[in-house]
Design brief:
The structure is a single chain. The protein is 6% helix and 45% strand. The chain is mainly beta and 264 residues long. Strands 1, 8, 9, 10, 11, 16, 17, 19, 20 and 21 form a ten-stranded mixed beta sheet that branches. Strand 13 and strand 14 form a beta hairpin. The protein is globular and about 60 Å long. The N terminus is likely disordered.
């Protein structure tokens, strides 16, 4: 299977410390990760940045509108007549508008505002393709003048690395049991019989499907493991469940991944 390689060694990402549930030591083998390193930070093409800077009018479409709290999030489709090539997010709170030209708006980003904490959560696609859906999660806060700023960025590689120490598996026949440490999560039943059976060295992987559900006040991480078979160059997800866990960030930037559960 072809792994995903780091595209730019010049990108330096701040380390994020993950705390996990207690009792995550496992006697089961752990899953492997497809991401070989941190992914490059979002960066709009130079011509798009130039067009955004000089534009007299931005053509936008709605991502989120919270009229009760007078806050909205929109994607920029065009700067005057120049397509933004999937880049550009505008956050408006009250009478203050903040533009994030380098944030990607492709693949239907989601946003949700938590009135109690004053935090805006935003997802942004990092990688997409057949069987691949990887997102970053942004925690956006506001200053005294309602100008938005990115307080924390949760990177998919950091999520993967944290889960590699927790997500275990065992295989009996065609049954694949998944564990969070020693705690059983769920069992999947393999129905694919024409791929030569499970890979003997490393059959279960994560990293190609890392997304978020922002429908509640607390973001929910969604991770779907993939299966590697003896034949075939890509992971298969047909019979595999999506696992979910709550995501929280402490005041000092610590990210906590809660208990992994089966996403019904």
């Amino acid at each position: 299977m072809k792994k995903i390689f780091l595209l730019s060694s010049a990108v330096i990402l701040a380390a994020v410390i993950f705390t996990a549930c207690k009792g995550t030591v496992s006697e089961h083998p752990f899953v492997a990760g497809t991401l070989d390193g941190p992914l490059p930070a979002d960066s709009a093409p130079a011509q798009v940045l130039k067009a955004l800077e000089k534009a007299e009018r931005l053509h936008q479409y709605e991502i989120m509108s919270d009229t009760a709290n007078n806050i909205s999030v929109e994607a920029i489709a065009e700067a005057d007549m120049t397509p933004t090539e999937g880049y550009g997010i505008v956050v408006v709170k009250g009478a203050t508008s903040t533009t994030f030209p380098n944030l990607r708006n492709a693949r239907q980003p989601m946003a949700n505002y938590d009135q109690e904490t004053g935090i805006l959560w935003l997802t942004s696609s990092v990688m997409e393709g057949t069987g691949i859906a990887v997102e970053r999660l942004y925690q956006i806060c506001f200053d005294e003048e309602d100008k938005a700023y990115i307080a924390h960025t949760i990177e998919p590689y950091d999520i993967q690395q944290a889960l590699l120490k927790r997500l275990g598996y065992s295989i009996e026949g065609q049954q694949i049991m998944l564990y969070d440490g020693e705690n059983s999560i769920t069992t999947a039943v393999n129905t694919i019989t024409d791929m030569g059976g499970f890979d003997s060295e490393q059959p279960v992987w994560i990293g190609e499907q890392i997304q978020y559900n922002l429908s509640g006040t607390t973001p929910q991480l969604l991770v779907t493991p993939g299966i590697k078979y003896t034949t075939g160059l890509v992971l298969t997800y047909d019979d595999m469940p999506t696992l979910s866990a709550s995501i929280t960030i402490s005041n000092d930037g610590q990210v906590n991944i809660g208990k992994l559960e089966y996403e019904n």
